[in-house]
Amino acid sequence: MSERFVDLAVENGIAVVTINRPKSLNALSVEVLEQLGQVIKDIEKDDKVRAVIITGSGSKAFVAGADIAAMVNMTAKEARDYSIFAHKVFESIEQLPKPVIAAVNGYALGGGNELAMACDIRVASSTANFGQPEITLGIIPGFGGTQRLSRLVGKGKAMELILTGKMIDAKTAESIGLVNVVVPPEKLMETAKEIAQKIINFSPLAISFAKEAVNRGIEMTLEQGCKYEIELWTDCFTTEDQDIGMTAFLNKQKPTFKGA
């Protein structure tokens, strides 16, 4: 039986996914990516799960990067396959119709930063550090870093981080828009769960439509994105949740959404 590197715990509608390879600072080996991809598939099918938190085991690292020991002797084809598979897993996280929060508890470097960026919201411990140090290894980011980083922080800052390979602390990451909120280490999971709980009180259909509108719209022109938003807005009015939410508002009541 193969060793488990990705743990899943579900409580009160919130799935906590933990990358559990602390001796290697939770590095993203092929096995870790395979298990993470399968866990995301299982979560998508589980109607009891309304929100997801991804974190790393231990206090040192969220994910310190890809598995350099495994990469050092890769052929070009093997490296390409590794990159393609990681992209597939990260896209499954980004496209999951449920909200995904990264709880960054330590180093989020290379593939770790790329994993965090594939999530919808990033909560960081004050001890966390971020970076894309691939340039120091003679390569470039290969799990989406050159694309998601510029979309989050802008081209200029992304270029600086990618071309210098420098590491930044959590407060700096927050100031450039890479991180949503920074909290003390002991408050990290509590804060992530509070955000998840707030989101799951809303309509799961509206949440999925909102994610889709933002994620797909950012790839479009403004005109195309606005047209796409109109279609998803219209879809909201085919749901019971729209009627529940608006009726409750007019009656000064708290809505109980059905996800229908």
Automatic annotation (TrEMBL):
<protein>
    <recommendedName>
        <fullName>short-chain-enoyl-CoA hydratase</fullName>
        <ecNumber>4.2.1.150</ecNumber>
    </recommendedName>
</protein>
<dbReference type="GO" id="GO:0018812">
    <property type="term" value="F:3-hydroxyacyl-CoA dehydratase activity"/>
</dbReference>
<comment type="subunit">
    <text>Homotetramer.</text>
</comment>
<dbReference type="InterPro" id="IPR014748">
    <property type="entry name" value="Enoyl-CoA_hydra_C"/>
</dbReference>
<dbReference type="Pfam" id="PF00378">
    <property type="entry name" value="ECH_1"/>
</dbReference>
<dbReference type="InterPro" id="IPR018376">
    <property type="entry name" value="Enoyl-CoA_hyd/isom_CS"/>
</dbReference>
<dbReference type="GO" id="GO:0006635">
    <property type="term" value="P:fatty acid beta-oxidation"/>
</dbReference>
<dbReference type="InterPro" id="IPR001753">
    <property type="entry name" value="Enoyl-CoA_hydra/iso"/>
</dbReference>
<comment type="similarity">
    <text>Belongs to the enoyl-CoA hydratase/isomerase family.</text>
</comment>
<keyword id="KW-0456">Lyase</keyword>
<comment type="pathway">
    <text>Lipid metabolism; butanoate metabolism.</text>
</comment>
<dbReference type="InterPro" id="IPR029045">
    <property type="entry name" value="ClpP/crotonase-like_dom_sf"/>
</dbReference>
